[in-house]
Amino acid sequence: MSKSIRFTPRMGLIAVVVAMALGGTAQATDITGAGSSFVYPVISKWSASYAEKTGNHVNYQSIGSGGGIAQIKAGTVDFGASDMPLDEATLDKFGLGQFPDVIGGIVPAFNVSGVAAGKMVLDGPTLARIYLGEITKWNDPAIAALNKGLKLPDAKITVVHRSDGSGTTFNFSDYLSKVSATWKSKVGEGTAVKWPVGIGGKGNEGVSAYIKQIPNSIGYVEYAYALQNHIGYAVMKNAAGKVVEPKTASFQAAAATADWAHAKNFNLLMTNAPGAEAWPITATSWVIMYKQPKNEANSKVALDFFKWAYANGQPQAKALDYVPLPAPLVKQIEGYWKAEFKL
Amino acid sequence: MQANPIDTRQPSTEHRSRADTRHDALFRRLLKGCALLVLAALLGAALSTLWGGREVLFGQGLHFLTSSAWDPVNDDYGAWAPVFGTLVTSLIALILAVPTSFGIALFLTEIAPAWLRSPVATAIELLASIPSIIYGMWGLFVFVPFMSRIEPTLSDTLGRIPLIGKLFQGPPLGLGLLTAGIVLAVMILPFICSVMREVFRTVPTRLKESSYALGSTTWEVVWDIVLPYTRSAVIGGIFLGLGRALGETMAVTFVLGNSYDITSSLLMPGTTISSAIANEFNEAVGVHRSALIALGFLLFVVTFVVLLIARLMLRQLARKEGR
């Protein structure tokens, strides 16, 4: 921001033009991005506000992470967005860099009559055993031990998962892999996996609808969907052994306590984060860009867009139930830009 | 045109007919081009799915066709579960939709009073124009809860019958093969029904009147006169509906439960070829993508085989009728 303070009085430019100057262009620029559907709602909101401020348009196509990675590799877009980070070898091979954009929480959601939202406690190993089909009844001793005093029905659990490939599934299965050796060896992690049990709903809305309609079901959805659909969500015992609620603070705690400092290229999943207040299934998505892009001007605008979003995009993100990145992480990302991007 | 003798006595006519011949040839070529375009598009689509799926089709070969595993993490793919789901849901749809369409079409052509015919016919044609996503939404939010209420009754009644009882036992989830089949039946009904109604109307009145005059009941007229007269067109209509059922995607995805299982119960979830592709294509890379494209190729094969059977049946019928 120091730059704008220096320029504004001397040139006598209005704020809009200053913001453009920051972006490195004199005219409105159209940049394009593509990828993850997880970030689509918030990027399109940001894009509208950013266009009002700067005149630069960010066109984002929600084509899926796989598509986003393919498009940025081919250089047909200015940035890609993926729910899965790329490994170092791939990044180096193509000369790409990546950084997180926004945080979201994934919650186990259930439909058990008589149990209200936030009243059921689950932990990772129990959740993994439910999804492995080892725990089949709600009154199983493992669930009962976590929920003393809660009346659990002697009913069969119907497991619901995503039928479409998704970043939500990737983070959820990654979490289960971290907390259960059986899950890791039998199923593993991916945007789509071989589910041992259960039925598949299409999208967060499909899973929410199934949970609402099928008594004694359990599923996992993005936090916003559990809130909007008024379905019961569970609280989780995290890696530190503390029971935490899904909310902005616990999602941010996961982002803050995850070991970003030692994660090269931010190649780190926030699941099972160590912090005492950290929500265990917290996810982000990564923006992927060329470090030495063919179209420098556009990439500069793209970086400026994310810089603006980190600083000013919080209200829009919160309105959509996303969580902005914590300040130290933003600082680290800006350092990464300076060090890695030749712009 | 060439077959017609050309009047050579009048030069102006000769000039005219030469121009006509030229235009005719041009027109023929244009039409041929249109037809070839369809063939080229079909062949192109089949070959490109074959090419896109080569990694799995040729890499895993028979395993891909016979295995029911679907494990994107370890890149182990088998198409049997989606193929099974596709065939079962389409079969349920046909079993339900064909008699119903037949009934509606008969009612509209033989029994209904004239003032009722055209509104009902229009209503059925409107059903055909509802987009499949709407059927999916209706299925998910209205029909699935309804099915989950009646499924316990199904299990207690039909589920008790020996042999077919197994088909109706299972948890009352509301979604699954049966629900998907019923939604599909509603979707293909207008297609089959429209075709049947159109061809039933082509039966000459004097044939029917003669039969009535000989003392036939309405049912006898329908079964012995109308149906034999229109049999091949009716079967064509049924296969038109079947073709749509095999390829239907969105509506099925919403109510099928999307799990790669092969079960003996119709109340259990399953998956179909097209819904598997629609679900996973977005996020699929590498071998996973190849497996999904290979599934697309399989859908071509399945549809082709089904249509082939239809052709053979029609030919058989034609031979029996001595045509």
TrEMBL record, chain A:
Organism superkingdom: Bacteria
Signal peptide location: 1-28
Keyword Transport: yes
Cytoplasm is among the record's keywords: no
Gene3D superfamilies given in the database record: Periplasmic binding protein-like II
A Gene Ontology BP annotation from the UniProt entry: phosphate ion transmembrane transport
GO cellular component, one term: ATP-binding cassette (ABC) transporter complex
Entry keywords, A to Z: Phosphate transport, Signal, Transport
Gene Ontology molecular function: any one: phosphate ion binding
InterPro entries named among the record's database cross-references: ABC_phos-bd_PstS, PBP_domain, Phosphate-bind_PstS
NCBIfam families: 3a0107s03, PRK10918.1
Protein name (database record): Phosphate-binding protein PstS
Annotated organism of origin: Rhodanobacter glycinis
Species classification: Bacteria, Pseudomonadati, Pseudomonadota, Gammaproteobacteria, Lysobacterales
UniProtKB/TrEMBL annotation, chain B:
Transmembrane intervals: 30-51, 79-108, 120-144, 175-200, 291-314
Cell compartments where the protein resides: Cell inner membrane; Cell membrane
Single biological process term from Gene Ontology: phosphate ion transport
Cell inner membrane listed as a keyword: yes
Domain of life: Bacteria
Residue stretches of biased makeup (Polar residues): 1-11
Region span, Disordered: 1-20
GO CC entries: plasma membrane
Mode of membrane association: Multi-pass membrane protein
Keywords: Cell inner membrane, Cell membrane, Membrane, Phosphate transport, Transmembrane, Transmembrane helix, Transport
Keyword Transport: yes
Ranges where the ABC transmembrane type-1 domain occurs: 83-310
InterPro entries in the cross-refs: MetI-like, MetI-like_sf, Phosphate_PstC, Phosphate_Transport_Permease
Molecular function GO labels: phosphate transmembrane transporter activity
Function: Part of the binding-protein-dependent transport system for phosphate; probably responsible for the translocation of the substrate across the membrane.
Similarity section: Belongs to the binding-protein-dependent transport system permease family. CysTW subfamily.
Protein name as catalogued: Phosphate transport system permease protein
Species name: Rhodanobacter glycinis
